[in-house]
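Q: A reviewer asked whether we had any structural model of the full assembly, not just the individual parts. We don't, so I'm hoping you can provide one. Inputs are below.
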Amino acid sequence: MHDNVHMGYDLQPDADRAAMLDAIGVATVEDLFSAIPKAIRLDRELALPGPLSEWALEREFRQRAARNATTRTHLSFLGGGAYDHYIPAAVDAIANRGEFLTAYTPYQPEMSQGLLQVLHDFQKLMSKVLGLPAVNCSVYDGATAMAEMAWMACVIRNKRTVAVARSILPDYRAVLDTYLAGRGVAIVDVASDPSSGTIDPNALELALSAGDCAALIVQSPNRFGVLESLGELCAAAHRHDALANVSVNPLLAGIARTAGAAGADIVCAEAQPLGIPLNAGGPYLGAVATRSEYRGFLPGRIVGEVMDLKGEPALALVHEEREQHVSRDRATSHICSNQALLALRVVLHLSLLGEQGLRRVATLNATKAHAFVDALCTLPGVSRAHIGPYFNESLLRLPCNAVAVLKALENEGIFGGIDGGRLDPSLGDCVLVAVTEMHSKQDMDRAKSAYARAIANALETEAA
Amino acid sequence: MTKTQSIYSLHRAGVSGTGIVDPDFPIDALNTAAWMPEGEARLGDLGLPEVSEIDVIRHFTRQSHESHGVDTGSYPLGSCTMKYNPKRNDRMAQLDGFRYAHPLQPPATLQGLWDTFADLQDALAEITGMDAFTLQPAAGAHGEFTGLLTIQRYFADRGEDRRTILIPDSAHGTNPASAAMVGFQCRLIPTTSRGLLDMETFRSLLGPDTAGLMLTNPSTLGLFEEQIEEIAAAVHDAGALLYYDGANLNALMGIVRPGDMGFDVIHVNTHKTLSTPHGGGGPGSGPCGVKSFLAPYLPAPHIRRDAAGKAFPDWDAPHSVGKVKSFYGHVEVLLRAWAYIRTLGGSGLRYATETAVLNANYLKARLADLLPPLFEQHCMHECLLSGGSLSVDAADFVKRLIDFGIHPPTLVGAGCVHFGPDYRTAMLIEPTETESKAALDLMIDSFRKVANEAAVAPFMIETAPHTTPVAKIVKDESAWLSVLETSDGSVS
Ligand SMILES: Cc1ncc(COP(=O)(O)O)c(C=O)c1O
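A: Here is a predicted structure for the entire assembly that you could use as a starting point for your response.
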């Protein structure tokens, strides 16, 4: 008999277990495992701590949680692919509902119309935000979305080379390398112009005309926070018979024309800014969209309208022939479990914001970021590292090494930004600063004076 | 009963579900055109709905009522391990100290995260008998991809050109799909009439070109692969490696460990075995474990402990296969898995496994007259039963279960498993350990009621379900147009 009073689901009293064993026709539970050779069995209990009561568990978790600083204990200007936006309580209230939380993929559409409707609305809303009609129910995150879409372009174009902007986020590039290596896809680098921070048009021409590229892969805002001229980039890709694959921050659609409207053939996005908590890096959500003509190449689940027996419209997972459980080794992607619960969060967030709300929150992000960047640039020796336009994040050049400044700010309870050295070894005197709607005027004033002090101290130390 | 409605049905121009104001930064006075590149500002509307908060809440609460989760009722969907997801784990995973942590904070400010990662890695290693783990993969398929990459890199480092992965025909679709993504060729191994790997074909396919064999044990047919020692020896003798698809680990915790069976690489689906919620399709998490000789190849960063036992992310991983996703993994999911392991401890995990196997065998025994098992031996945590002797089609039969509040078991074309033509009428039933005997008896009763009804009123079965907001769905797969574009031409 096990002492499982702690676990909260010791469901079978001894009498029930005895009756069940009886029905099966064995004497002990042990007998059910007779197929497992003795030689390989574990002859001891698993060496794990516990069990724990619920309160002891909570105490331990709280202790651990307290050993993390957060964007709540610190004033944070961290971005670089994950942003601290406000998430309305209403998002959590619905996303934590057990009916959604504990469901699986809606394989049985008749009993899952609610979930299917959520996912269908996700496709619909994201098609607006990304600007292309065909959307799936999500892939793992923004980086794997870019990688999956790179391969999709290769399949569509039947080519095995892609041109990739050097300015995509470092993690995205790392994931792209990992994903494409196995597929035998070559990557041609496209450099940025060091002054504007946008893609160098000459480098672009060279890359596209040299390689027989399936796609041009760019990100906007890019790793420096700079907005690319998407219209021109997409046109260049098309001139060279390549698809334009664009990765975006979906929040930017609040004020900017969508990537689809700018001419992209395939758009992908990290949807974390739309209602997904930072969670120390995940789970987030990779959103993808493409033109109708390429929808048959999309990875993952797609919800569509079908009919029921009475001829009434209903929703179901459709066109599963694209997917791994049907196509197996010929599928374009292996994705099975995805980010459905995060898709629900995105639907909730966009529903609450609505047309005007998205515009307002995007505007506020841009305004506050520009105000803060302008303020920092009044400090001696501080300037923007690039002259290209930006949204809510920008790379600033400091008159000294960034690491020391960031450390000093941290000592004052401020995460001042991301060390430019993470983006490029030559940018060790830069910081990438992100601002969201949540930063107040007071936050900015406080950070500005802390920056002033930290820079002065760093300069003094460097001089000594 | 109403058909579900899109959120767009609640749109009222000018309504807002959230207030976005900051007196210090008046929005109306702003001129984005001043900094936007020419032509990039959006002039028209995007086309998002405008809905009040109360309408959003009521709408999605209603939709939740038209969804079925483990919290709603039984969910014996084979291969998916739809066990109860303890609420305490949700609370732990959403503590501020994790929820609001930014992944790019200085590593020293995330000590609670690294310590938890290291502890979870250690616990997974103990449960599975492996030496090292990465928590980066986002799901089972992603864990497969990661594990296969380590195999590929290992052989590349040894200068061996091995390009084939062997896979049983009953394997989950992600196995061959992941292998193809890594660049391997797949060869299929048939299943014997006893539901086990066909050793003869397996041996004939094994050769100098074989990089590995991917195996789910117990298999997706719910059976323990008894010849596992022989299989492992043969794979290793051929110089290849053995991959464990951990989707069915719920059958083995504390009983036998993949590492002790001879597996070199494995993934664990935390959303199955470790009770993290399936979220309507995700997010899951697919930690990948390896024997020590493969540890250097795991994705960077490696989470290690220093001499003082303090965990930290080590980016110095020159042999790593690289990164498989941004940042470090599905933290919120992994925290739940850790909370689950902490709560149960070693004895509790074994008890969970024993109960899962007990429950599956109980169902199998009690349903045997109605749905004869395809295989005679004891099943593990799930049983494969034949619907072949029913008077109606098995696919119709299970739809009627919906009216009894039971999610149908896995069938060909309904669920995530791939069955060959021999199993066209087979149902893979996985009750999990968190169903009580009373719940199982109710399930059994429901199966019987449906079977009785099938004999007298087959029409009731063929047109089921009858209690759902929509009737039985007829998929017309030619209708791409209806999928993504509405008839008025606007994007839907
Ligand atoms: C046997 C088996 N292998 C692999 C997978 C893939 O796991 P995931 O959905 O987490 O990618 C599943 C589940 O869907 C499975 O049942």
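A: Points you may want to mention in the reply: Residues A 336-337; B 79, 139-141, 172, 174, 216, 220, 245, 247, 269, 284, 286, 416 surround pyridoxal-5'-phosphate (CB under 6 Å). Residues 89-348 of chain A form a domain with the Aspartate Aminotransferase; domain 2 fold (CATH 3.40.640.10).
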